[in-house]
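Section: Multi-chain targets

For targets with more than one molecule, the full set of components is provided together so that the structure can be written out for the assembly as a whole rather than chain by chain. Components appear in the order listed by the source. The example entry contains two components.
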Amino acid sequence: MRRAWIVVWKDVLSERRSKESLNALVFFALLLLFVFQFALGPDRARVETALPGLLWIAFILAGLLAFGRTFLVERENDCWEGLVLAPGDRSAIYLGKLAGNMLLMALVEAALLVLFALFFSLDFTGALPALALVLALGTFGLVAVGTLFGALTAQLRARELLFPVLLLPAVVPVLLGAVTATQTVLAGQPLAGASSWLTLLAAADVVYLVVGLLTFEFVLEG
Amino acid sequence: MVQAQHLRKTYGPTRVLDDVSLTLSAGESVTLLGPNGTGKTTLLRILATLQRPTSGSLSIAGVDALKAPEAVRGAVDMVGHGSWVYEDLTAIENLRFWTTLGGHDAGRARLKGALESVELDTVADQRARTFSAGMKRRLALARVLLGRARLLLLDEPFTGLDRAGRKWLAEFLLAFKAQGGAVIVATHSFDAGAGVADRVAILAGGRIVLDRPAASLGLDDLRRLYDELAAGPVIAS
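Its structure, encoded as tokens over all components, is:
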């Protein structure tokens, strides 16, 4: 755990100082919101129908930007070599990167929720506890597979092309579960109504995490 | 410490290393000389277990490094073209990261001590982004001091160093050897490289074409041999 923690510490500290990812993601989120608002217009019913899908499109697009960068920073000054040569269990590096991405996505998702509320005059406060659970489950699956594929493609020449091509099909179960569960929550229905989707999300999270832990060593070695 | 036998490395039809054998004892250093593109970096990366050879055998500290690379990685450290430095972290934060990741004691006093040894203690809390190439190399060597490496691999370590920096690096390597460490330096700058070596090897066309005790070669002899031997066909790296 100490080794995973030091990876989180390093990534958070670097991001806090450079703000490279966070600035880009917030700016991107703003652009996305403008596009959504122009596309949907002032029709509130239309916005509410499309909202769960729009939220997850925004999250996944932000994730595509964020996860792709996770391991690119390790290429600077050949730090990747240091990670490969570090003795001990490599899954700690994966867990550290995953935790760092979860923190980043939590910030981005919080910012996006606030922006959605402002742009479309929405009030999420009543649904927040249930929404937080759905977002946490959905984001974990997205981050678990995004972190792994970020590492897998970081050393490839065509990474900008391959990363979304690999990631998007792999997160289909997460997207289906997350969008449907979000729809249930935002409609004001009890979470129990989406229990099968939540089970799917939890199962996908476990599968992605285990696959990540088991394969990361081979991915890092290249 | 190192026993590399008949190492070959090919990329498709391109042969980068061809039947390279190299042995090195604890407390010994060898400087690998050769022009650009003769396979020096590839050889170092194989010795560091960052790459696998196409064929051949490699034993480091008595362990088969091809079968069990994990088992030897704690004993090997490398300062390559990059310095494994995170630009947005300070010098001491960089050391804290690598030392903790390596499973070593990362107490501030120990980290400060290592920075003192490489004469970077006055900039311990400055971001690495502000450092020169030479300072980054010193920071990488401070990282080496904090680990338990017994084999140190350096790729073009003299590049970007001024006269004082080269002298300092030579002293650092002598001290590392004196503590029982083995050192392999790959360079094409043989004035500086030969100065820190017990043995000098010339790599040309992917082969070691000369491996002799440094004491048996004057600098003029070495220059002449280098010009004769290294002028062969370059394979690639």
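The helical segments of chain B are 40-47, 69-73, 91-101, 108-117, 133-146, 163-178, 190-195, 219-229.
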